[in-house]
């Protein structure tokens, strides 16, 4: 109903206006720092005059908002809208009945089905194999009215009064009916985690070899149903490329694919990502189009709008949208955030979750950090099959992810419909001021010229987009909360950056910026400062004022061509950094600017990831005595460290250790092997003793071990029982190495072995 959409859009814009007025008040009418004597008095008078004007402006805006609210309330009565309308209720007696497009899949002829032969055989064998215990399956959909189905399946009369029975009576009726029968029941597309906990008491375990099939798109739902070794979870995989192409050609062409359409057709099939429904629907639609390159290219270029407007593709849009609509409120914004990133982009998860936190999508929970809550959100999106894993870390945490191409089209449509984000690619230049976020992809357009005066914009993202003026932008959009300017060609930061008092996230990765203005100390809400791979070598002391900082990321590297290794460079921070009590990640701080900075690292009690460079024998001794955060999970130390800090052995959560350029006088394995959570260990370009020994009881969870260019190392010994979970091992080149461990005999889980012996000539 178009009236409802218009009303909701008006409500959303009014909510944005309310938020803007509140933030403008905080920005302009807060209490500035006081100055002394006559100059201070003049400044105070000047501020009072400006404030008086601001008071009138804000009061005027509030009156306008009040009028809009009254109008919205009146309009809602006119349209007959009610806040009590439930999702799926239709909202109106004249609404068109909804038909589930998934039902038609039950009537597809076997000859039309491609690429599921092996999975069909496996599932059929599990259904008919002789196992007396009742077993259950998991895969995809929703609970139906079970009791009546059983009677109807055997053509038996349904008991009278079944429609009026309460829950307890229905459970008893069904159990009694099935008690002496062997049965097969399918629950399709189950969404609720507590489903199996209830339904299992309805289905009797009578040792007659009954089977239960539960399909779901949510991994967590599947796992909640598995209670014994007899229960089996089958993960339905996308169609492989060959089967996808075969199915597409079967639907789109009577014979083979014309040569001139092959490239376009392969691109369309690739974007379907092995999704059977999409291949069938799109192939069927294209079968009715003329076999002209121009026609097919037009379709390919406008696939997103076709999904929304073409009735032949409505089933794809409807089914994919179901997963979005089932999301809890707090996850919908996180999911829509994938609209920000360019097509075919692999998204790094840590910056993603930091952005969610900066946007306010993640709320604090007792005993859990914001970062951990954000990781839970991402995990749930993955379990719901909405987000796909690209790469994982050694500790099992997700390193990078992506979304299905067709799901991205759904996201883009929803993001535009909800004024969530405006994505502009190439030379597009029309920007609707109602959007909260602007993401430019491969554009040379100037952000300042694109956006209008009445813009609600709070977040700006540039991807391979070069031209803009940060000084003008900071003046024009002083309510900005997120600035993501990676790879933008930026070479300096203006002083008026400090005017962005609401800024929570600033990323300048891979830019040519050399220094930060002192005004950065005004950004009291800043949570993340990302200066990776910039030319910044020194952070102003004003950084220490930013009490809400959670992440300082400032590192770069030089590449050693001879060794094939990276040498990391850090940044100079000032004494006082120990007051940043909310800091979670500090990478990478230089240790050669006084012992005071090193000592203050011990005050950072919430620190989870720490990198320290330019360690020497002298400052390394001070590092030995600081009290490190018990929450530390990643530790990287660069420089001539002679002894590992004693406190390392107390870090129960430490999962990654990297030592680069050390000059260790003792066997580091004695300290490291007892760490209960250590999963990745890297020893690079260091001097060590002649033999490293991995004892039988050591490194029980280590998955990745790299020993590269260790001076003085002659032997690596791995005792039987050590490193039981090791998957990746690299040893060498090491100049004096004489003997390699027999990895294949002692490491049963080893997947990748890269060993080299490099001796002196």
TrEMBL record:
InterPro entries: Apaf_helical, Disease_R_plants, LRR_dom_sf, LRR_R13L4/SHOC2-like, NB-ARC, P-loop_NTPase, RX-like_CC, WH-like_DNA-bd_sf
Keywords: Nucleotide-binding, Plant defense, Repeat
Domain NB-ARC: 137-254
Organism: Vitis vinifera (Grape)
Domain called Disease resistance protein winged helix: residue spans: 340-411
Chain spans, region Disordered: 79-98
Domain Disease resistance R13L4/SHOC-2-like LRR residue range list: 456-614, 625-732
Alphabetized GO MF terms: ADP binding
Protein name: Disease resistance protein RPM1
GO biological process: defense response; response to other organism
